[in-house]
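#lab-general

N.A. 3:47 PM
ok so I finally got the sequence cleaned up, no stray characters, all 401 residues accounted for. can someone with queue access submit it? mine expired

B.Y. 3:52 PM
send it over

N.A. 3:53 PM
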Amino acid sequence: MSRALLAVILLFFAAIAYVAVQLVRPVGSVSAARVHTSAAIGGTPATLAWPTQGEAAFGVEGGGVLATHGSQAEVPLGSVTKVMTAYIVLHDHPLTTGTQGPSITITPTDVTQYQQDVASTDSVVNVQAGEQLTEYQALEGLLIPSGDNIAVLLAQWDAGSVTAFVAKMNAEAKALGLAHTRYADPAGLNPKTTSNAADQTRLAMAAMQLPVFRSIVSMAQVTLPVAGLAYNVDALLGTDGIIGVKTGFITQAGGCFAFAATTSVGTTAETVVGAVLGQPSTPAQPSALQAAFNATTALVPTVDSALGQRQVVQTGQTLAVLRSPWGSTVPLRAAHGVSVLGLAGEPVVTAVHLPKKVSTVHAGQHIGTAVVAVGDERRSVPLLAAGSVSGPSFSWRLTNI
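B.Y. 4:20 PM
back already:
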Protein backbone atom coordinates (compact mmCIF):
# COMPACT_ATOMS: atom_id res chain seq x y z
CA MET A 1 0.00 0.00 0.00
CA SER A 2 1.41 3.31 -0.99
CA ARG A 3 2.04 6.03 1.52
CA ALA A 4 -0.42 8.31 -0.24
CA LEU A 5 -3.23 5.76 -0.02
CA LEU A 6 -2.44 5.11 3.63
CA ALA A 7 -2.60 8.83 4.33
CA VAL A 8 -6.00 9.03 2.65
CA ILE A 9 -7.33 6.10 4.70
CA LEU A 10 -6.03 7.59 7.95
CA LEU A 11 -7.52 10.96 7.08
CA PHE A 12 -10.86 9.30 6.31
CA PHE A 13 -11.01 7.52 9.66
CA ALA A 14 -9.88 10.67 11.46
CA ALA A 15 -12.71 12.60 9.82
CA ILE A 16 -15.20 9.95 10.89
CA ALA A 17 -13.85 10.08 14.45
CA TYR A 18 -14.04 13.90 14.50
CA VAL A 19 -17.65 13.90 13.30
CA ALA A 20 -18.57 11.23 15.86
CA VAL A 21 -16.96 13.15 18.70
CA GLN A 22 -18.53 16.45 17.64
CA LEU A 23 -22.00 14.88 17.45
CA VAL A 24 -21.91 13.39 20.95
CA ARG A 25 -19.77 15.79 22.97
CA PRO A 26 -21.46 18.17 25.45
CA VAL A 27 -22.06 21.56 23.88
CA GLY A 28 -22.57 23.69 26.98
CA SER A 29 -25.71 24.73 28.81
CA VAL A 30 -28.25 27.42 28.09
CA SER A 31 -27.55 30.69 29.91
CA ALA A 32 -30.00 33.35 31.03
CA ALA A 33 -29.69 37.12 30.95
CA ARG A 34 -31.87 39.76 32.60
CA VAL A 35 -33.70 42.41 30.66
CA HIS A 36 -33.20 45.85 32.23
CA THR A 37 -36.36 47.31 33.75
CA SER A 38 -36.92 50.47 35.77
CA ALA A 39 -40.02 52.09 37.20
CA ALA A 40 -41.21 54.57 39.78
CA ILE A 41 -44.53 55.26 41.47
CA GLY A 42 -46.33 57.91 39.46
CA GLY A 43 -47.26 61.36 40.68
CA THR A 44 -45.49 64.36 42.13
CA PRO A 45 -43.47 63.59 45.26
CA ALA A 46 -45.24 65.07 48.28
CA THR A 47 -43.74 66.60 51.40
CA LEU A 48 -44.68 64.48 54.39
CA ALA A 49 -45.54 66.22 57.66
CA TRP A 50 -43.21 64.20 59.88
CA PRO A 51 -43.07 65.09 63.58
CA THR A 52 -40.26 67.47 64.48
CA GLN A 53 -39.17 65.27 67.40
CA GLY A 54 -39.19 61.57 68.17
CA GLU A 55 -39.62 59.05 65.39
CA ALA A 56 -42.33 57.76 63.07
CA ALA A 57 -43.03 55.23 60.35
CA PHE A 58 -45.91 54.15 58.16
CA GLY A 59 -46.88 51.72 55.47
CA VAL A 60 -49.89 50.28 53.70
CA GLU A 61 -51.61 47.21 55.09
CA GLY A 62 -50.47 44.21 53.10
CA GLY A 63 -47.47 46.09 51.74
CA GLY A 64 -45.11 46.63 54.68
CA VAL A 65 -43.34 49.76 55.86
CA LEU A 66 -42.97 52.41 53.15
CA ALA A 67 -41.14 55.19 54.97
CA THR A 68 -39.52 56.03 58.31
CA HIS A 69 -38.44 59.22 60.02
CA GLY A 70 -36.10 59.94 62.89
CA SER A 71 -33.38 57.78 64.35
CA GLN A 72 -35.47 54.59 64.63
CA ALA A 73 -33.68 54.03 67.92
CA GLU A 74 -35.12 51.55 70.42
CA VAL A 75 -37.24 53.72 72.72
CA PRO A 76 -39.76 52.99 75.51
CA LEU A 77 -43.27 52.20 74.29
CA GLY A 78 -45.68 52.72 77.15
CA SER A 79 -49.02 51.02 76.57
CA VAL A 80 -48.39 50.49 72.86
CA THR A 81 -46.81 47.32 74.33
CA LYS A 82 -50.33 45.95 74.79
CA VAL A 83 -50.62 45.36 71.06
CA MET A 84 -48.18 42.47 71.45
CA THR A 85 -49.95 41.29 74.62
CA ALA A 86 -53.26 41.07 72.78
CA TYR A 87 -51.59 39.53 69.72
CA ILE A 88 -50.14 36.66 71.77
CA VAL A 89 -53.35 36.04 73.72
CA LEU A 90 -55.33 35.83 70.48
CA HIS A 91 -52.64 33.63 68.92
CA ASP A 92 -52.73 31.23 71.87
CA HIS A 93 -56.50 31.44 72.45
CA PRO A 94 -58.07 32.31 69.07
CA LEU A 95 -61.48 33.94 69.00
CA THR A 96 -63.87 34.21 66.11
CA THR A 97 -65.96 37.33 65.66
CA GLY A 98 -68.98 37.28 67.95
CA THR A 99 -67.58 34.80 70.46
CA GLN A 100 -66.51 35.52 74.03
CA GLY A 101 -64.05 32.73 74.72
CA PRO A 102 -63.34 31.15 78.10
CA SER A 103 -63.98 32.90 81.40
CA ILE A 104 -61.23 34.23 83.65
CA THR A 105 -61.97 34.42 87.38
CA ILE A 106 -60.63 37.45 89.22
CA THR A 107 -58.63 36.37 92.28
CA PRO A 108 -57.63 38.30 95.41
CA THR A 109 -54.13 38.54 93.87
CA ASP A 110 -55.64 40.28 90.83
CA VAL A 111 -57.42 42.73 93.14
CA THR A 112 -54.12 43.45 94.91
CA GLN A 113 -52.51 44.13 91.52
CA TYR A 114 -55.35 46.54 90.73
CA GLN A 115 -54.90 48.35 94.05
CA GLN A 116 -51.14 48.66 93.52
CA ASP A 117 -51.71 50.11 90.05
CA VAL A 118 -54.23 52.59 91.45
CA ALA A 119 -51.70 53.69 94.07
CA SER A 120 -49.14 54.21 91.30
CA THR A 121 -51.68 56.24 89.28
CA ASP A 122 -51.42 53.72 86.44
CA SER A 123 -54.15 53.11 83.89
CA VAL A 124 -56.47 50.52 85.45
CA VAL A 125 -59.75 48.63 85.07
CA ASN A 126 -61.68 48.11 88.30
CA VAL A 127 -62.05 44.44 89.25
CA GLN A 128 -63.47 42.47 92.21
CA ALA A 129 -62.59 39.05 93.56
CA GLY A 130 -64.86 36.41 92.09
CA GLU A 131 -65.72 38.51 89.05
CA GLN A 132 -65.87 36.63 85.76
CA LEU A 133 -64.34 38.24 82.70
CA THR A 134 -64.47 36.46 79.37
CA GLU A 135 -61.35 36.50 77.25
CA TYR A 136 -63.06 38.99 74.95
CA GLN A 137 -63.98 41.29 77.83
CA ALA A 138 -60.43 41.12 79.19
CA LEU A 139 -59.10 42.12 75.76
CA GLU A 140 -61.57 45.02 75.73
CA GLY A 141 -60.26 46.12 79.13
CA LEU A 142 -56.68 45.80 77.87
CA LEU A 143 -57.08 47.71 74.60
CA ILE A 144 -59.79 50.31 75.20
CA PRO A 145 -59.27 51.86 78.67
CA SER A 146 -55.74 50.38 78.55
CA GLY A 147 -55.83 48.51 81.86
CA ASP A 148 -52.31 47.80 83.10
CA ASN A 149 -53.72 45.35 85.63
CA ILE A 150 -55.55 43.54 82.82
CA ALA A 151 -52.24 43.12 80.97
CA VAL A 152 -50.85 41.31 84.04
CA LEU A 153 -54.07 39.29 84.38
CA LEU A 154 -53.92 38.10 80.76
CA ALA A 155 -50.21 37.35 80.95
CA GLN A 156 -50.67 35.11 83.99
CA TRP A 157 -53.74 33.45 82.49
CA ASP A 158 -52.01 32.73 79.21
CA ALA A 159 -48.53 31.67 80.36
CA GLY A 160 -48.82 30.96 84.07
CA SER A 161 -46.59 33.88 85.03
CA VAL A 162 -45.59 37.30 83.80
CA THR A 163 -42.01 36.10 83.30
CA ALA A 164 -43.12 33.24 81.06
CA PHE A 165 -45.40 35.57 79.10
CA VAL A 166 -42.63 38.13 78.54
CA ALA A 167 -40.49 35.31 77.14
CA LYS A 168 -43.33 34.59 74.70
CA MET A 169 -43.47 38.26 73.74
CA ASN A 170 -39.79 38.34 72.87
CA ALA A 171 -39.99 35.04 70.98
CA GLU A 172 -42.91 36.36 68.94
CA ALA A 173 -41.08 39.61 68.22
CA LYS A 174 -38.22 37.56 66.81
CA ALA A 175 -40.60 35.39 64.77
CA LEU A 176 -42.20 38.52 63.27
CA GLY A 177 -38.80 39.95 62.34
CA LEU A 178 -39.00 42.82 64.85
CA ALA A 179 -35.25 43.10 65.25
CA HIS A 180 -35.36 46.29 67.31
CA THR A 181 -37.99 45.23 69.85
CA ARG A 182 -37.38 44.08 73.43
CA TYR A 183 -40.12 43.35 75.97
CA ALA A 184 -39.68 43.50 79.76
CA ASP A 185 -43.35 43.54 80.81
CA PRO A 186 -46.83 43.02 79.29
CA ALA A 187 -48.17 46.51 80.04
CA GLY A 188 -45.38 48.84 78.95
CA LEU A 189 -44.79 50.38 82.39
CA ASN A 190 -41.19 49.18 82.37
CA PRO A 191 -39.00 51.59 80.36
CA LYS A 192 -36.85 48.60 79.39
CA THR A 193 -39.69 47.57 77.07
CA THR A 194 -38.43 49.22 73.90
CA SER A 195 -38.92 49.23 70.15
CA ASN A 196 -38.87 51.62 67.21
CA ALA A 197 -41.57 53.07 65.00
CA ALA A 198 -40.87 50.76 62.06
CA ASP A 199 -41.19 47.60 64.18
CA GLN A 200 -44.38 48.83 65.83
CA THR A 201 -45.83 49.59 62.41
CA ARG A 202 -45.11 46.02 61.35
CA LEU A 203 -46.63 44.64 64.56
CA ALA A 204 -49.75 46.79 64.21
CA MET A 205 -50.18 45.45 60.67
CA ALA A 206 -49.94 41.88 61.93
CA ALA A 207 -52.40 42.53 64.77
CA MET A 208 -54.91 44.22 62.45
CA GLN A 209 -55.07 40.97 60.46
CA LEU A 210 -56.86 39.43 63.47
CA PRO A 211 -60.57 40.28 63.06
CA VAL A 212 -61.26 40.34 66.81
CA PHE A 213 -58.34 42.69 67.50
CA ARG A 214 -59.38 44.93 64.62
CA SER A 215 -62.96 45.03 65.92
CA ILE A 216 -62.01 45.87 69.51
CA VAL A 217 -59.61 48.72 68.73
CA SER A 218 -62.29 50.33 66.56
CA MET A 219 -64.73 50.60 69.49
CA ALA A 220 -65.22 53.96 71.19
CA GLN A 221 -66.46 52.46 74.47
CA VAL A 222 -67.35 49.21 76.20
CA THR A 223 -69.24 48.12 79.30
CA LEU A 224 -67.44 45.70 81.63
CA PRO A 225 -69.05 43.69 84.48
CA VAL A 226 -67.62 45.63 87.44
CA ALA A 227 -65.84 48.58 85.87
CA GLY A 228 -68.95 49.55 83.93
CA LEU A 229 -68.65 52.02 81.05
CA ALA A 230 -65.08 52.46 79.82
CA TYR A 231 -63.96 54.80 77.05
CA ASN A 232 -61.25 54.29 74.44
CA VAL A 233 -58.09 56.27 75.22
CA ASP A 234 -57.70 56.72 71.44
CA ALA A 235 -59.20 60.19 71.15
CA LEU A 236 -58.64 60.23 67.37
CA LEU A 237 -60.91 57.27 66.71
CA GLY A 238 -63.35 58.16 63.92
CA THR A 239 -61.44 61.27 62.78
CA ASP A 240 -59.18 61.49 59.71
CA GLY A 241 -60.15 57.90 58.89
CA ILE A 242 -58.55 56.57 62.12
CA ILE A 243 -59.83 53.07 63.00
CA GLY A 244 -57.34 52.21 65.83
CA VAL A 245 -54.81 51.00 67.09
CA LYS A 246 -53.21 51.79 70.50
CA THR A 247 -51.99 54.70 72.59
CA GLY A 248 -49.07 54.72 75.00
CA PHE A 249 -47.49 56.96 77.60
CA ILE A 250 -44.98 56.79 80.41
CA THR A 251 -42.64 59.58 81.39
CA GLN A 252 -39.63 57.88 79.77
CA ALA A 253 -41.53 57.21 76.53
CA GLY A 254 -43.37 60.44 75.98
CA GLY A 255 -46.51 60.23 73.87
CA CYS A 256 -46.81 57.20 71.60
CA PHE A 257 -49.48 56.13 69.15
CA ALA A 258 -49.70 53.18 66.78
CA PHE A 259 -52.46 54.00 64.32
CA ALA A 260 -54.47 52.66 61.42
CA ALA A 261 -56.46 54.86 59.05
CA THR A 262 -58.53 54.16 55.96
CA THR A 263 -57.82 56.03 52.76
CA SER A 264 -58.40 55.75 49.01
CA VAL A 265 -55.76 55.32 46.33
CA GLY A 266 -57.55 55.90 43.06
CA THR A 267 -60.69 53.78 43.34
CA THR A 268 -59.18 51.34 45.84
CA ALA A 269 -59.74 51.49 49.60
CA GLU A 270 -56.52 51.02 51.54
CA THR A 271 -55.49 51.07 55.19
CA VAL A 272 -52.47 53.12 56.23
CA VAL A 273 -50.76 51.78 59.35
CA GLY A 274 -48.07 53.63 61.26
CA ALA A 275 -46.54 54.60 64.57
CA VAL A 276 -45.47 57.87 66.16
CA LEU A 277 -43.17 57.47 69.18
CA GLY A 278 -41.37 59.71 71.63
CA GLN A 279 -43.53 62.83 71.41
CA PRO A 280 -42.63 65.23 74.26
CA SER A 281 -44.82 67.46 76.34
CA THR A 282 -44.20 71.19 76.07
CA PRO A 283 -45.42 74.24 77.99
CA ALA A 284 -47.80 74.88 75.10
CA GLN A 285 -48.88 71.22 74.99
CA PRO A 286 -48.46 69.66 78.46
CA SER A 287 -50.01 66.35 77.39
CA ALA A 288 -47.42 64.17 75.64
CA LEU A 289 -50.19 61.84 74.43
CA GLN A 290 -51.99 64.79 72.85
CA ALA A 291 -48.68 65.68 71.20
CA ALA A 292 -48.65 62.18 69.66
CA PHE A 293 -52.22 62.70 68.46
CA ASN A 294 -51.28 66.06 66.95
CA ALA A 295 -48.30 64.53 65.15
CA THR A 296 -50.56 61.81 63.75
CA THR A 297 -53.27 64.18 62.53
CA ALA A 298 -50.58 66.21 60.76
CA LEU A 299 -48.94 63.17 59.16
CA VAL A 300 -51.89 61.09 57.97
CA PRO A 301 -53.37 63.52 55.39
CA THR A 302 -49.97 64.03 53.77
CA VAL A 303 -49.48 60.27 53.57
CA ASP A 304 -52.88 59.90 51.91
CA SER A 305 -52.01 62.46 49.25
CA ALA A 306 -48.57 60.97 48.65
CA LEU A 307 -49.67 57.40 47.96
CA GLY A 308 -49.80 56.14 44.41
CA GLN A 309 -50.20 52.87 42.56
CA ARG A 310 -48.12 51.54 39.69
CA GLN A 311 -48.49 48.52 37.42
CA VAL A 312 -44.84 47.51 37.42
CA VAL A 313 -45.00 44.20 35.57
CA GLN A 314 -47.46 43.26 32.84
CA THR A 315 -48.65 39.71 32.28
CA GLY A 316 -46.42 38.23 29.58
CA GLN A 317 -43.75 40.92 29.89
CA THR A 318 -40.27 39.69 28.98
CA LEU A 319 -37.97 40.05 31.98
CA ALA A 320 -35.14 37.75 30.88
CA VAL A 321 -33.89 35.86 27.83
CA LEU A 322 -32.41 32.37 27.54
CA ARG A 323 -29.52 32.01 25.11
CA SER A 324 -27.85 28.83 23.94
CA PRO A 325 -24.20 28.65 22.78
CA TRP A 326 -25.46 27.94 19.24
CA GLY A 327 -27.66 31.05 19.05
CA SER A 328 -31.17 29.90 20.04
CA THR A 329 -33.03 32.44 22.21
CA VAL A 330 -36.22 32.08 24.24
CA PRO A 331 -37.86 34.92 26.21
CA LEU A 332 -38.78 34.39 29.88
CA ARG A 333 -42.09 36.12 30.50
CA ALA A 334 -43.98 37.12 33.66
CA ALA A 335 -46.68 34.61 34.58
CA HIS A 336 -48.86 37.43 35.92
CA GLY A 337 -48.83 41.17 36.40
CA VAL A 338 -47.64 42.98 39.52
CA SER A 339 -49.12 46.21 40.86
CA VAL A 340 -47.64 47.96 43.90
CA LEU A 341 -48.50 50.84 46.22
CA GLY A 342 -45.91 53.38 47.23
CA LEU A 343 -45.06 57.01 47.64
CA ALA A 344 -45.24 59.17 44.55
CA GLY A 345 -41.87 59.29 42.82
CA GLU A 346 -40.48 56.36 44.80
CA PRO A 347 -38.35 53.95 42.72
CA VAL A 348 -39.53 50.39 42.29
CA VAL A 349 -36.82 47.75 42.04
CA THR A 350 -37.39 44.58 40.03
CA ALA A 351 -34.80 41.88 40.71
CA VAL A 352 -34.68 38.83 38.45
CA HIS A 353 -33.37 35.62 40.00
CA LEU A 354 -32.24 33.04 37.44
CA PRO A 355 -30.57 29.63 37.60
CA LYS A 356 -26.89 29.57 36.67
CA LYS A 357 -27.41 26.77 34.17
CA VAL A 358 -30.39 25.37 32.31
CA SER A 359 -30.17 21.94 30.73
CA THR A 360 -33.51 21.57 28.94
CA VAL A 361 -36.12 24.14 28.05
CA HIS A 362 -39.69 23.60 26.98
CA ALA A 363 -42.53 26.04 26.45
CA GLY A 364 -44.26 27.06 29.69
CA GLN A 365 -41.42 25.82 31.88
CA HIS A 366 -40.92 27.80 35.11
CA ILE A 367 -37.38 29.16 34.97
CA GLY A 368 -36.50 31.85 37.49
CA THR A 369 -38.46 34.43 39.46
CA ALA A 370 -38.83 38.19 39.42
CA VAL A 371 -39.18 40.02 42.76
CA VAL A 372 -40.68 43.50 42.74
CA ALA A 373 -39.75 45.63 45.77
CA VAL A 374 -40.98 48.99 47.04
CA GLY A 375 -40.34 49.83 50.68
CA ASP A 376 -40.83 46.64 52.69
CA GLU A 377 -43.18 45.17 50.12
CA ARG A 378 -42.02 42.22 48.06
CA ARG A 379 -44.06 40.67 45.24
CA SER A 380 -42.83 37.56 43.43
CA VAL A 381 -43.82 36.48 39.94
CA PRO A 382 -42.72 33.24 38.20
CA LEU A 383 -40.97 33.51 34.85
CA LEU A 384 -42.14 31.10 32.15
CA ALA A 385 -40.29 30.08 29.00
CA ALA A 386 -42.08 31.37 25.91
CA GLY A 387 -40.84 28.41 23.82
CA SER A 388 -38.42 25.53 23.74
CA VAL A 389 -34.71 25.58 22.94
CA SER A 390 -33.84 23.33 20.02
CA GLY A 391 -30.52 21.53 19.85
CA PRO A 392 -27.54 22.73 17.81
CA SER A 393 -27.52 22.12 14.07
CA PHE A 394 -25.24 19.56 12.40
CA SER A 395 -23.16 22.28 10.79
CA TRP A 396 -22.77 24.16 14.12
CA ARG A 397 -21.49 21.00 15.83
CA LEU A 398 -18.97 20.40 13.04
CA THR A 399 -17.68 23.96 12.95
CA ASN A 400 -17.51 24.73 16.69
CA ILE A 401 -14.79 22.98 18.60
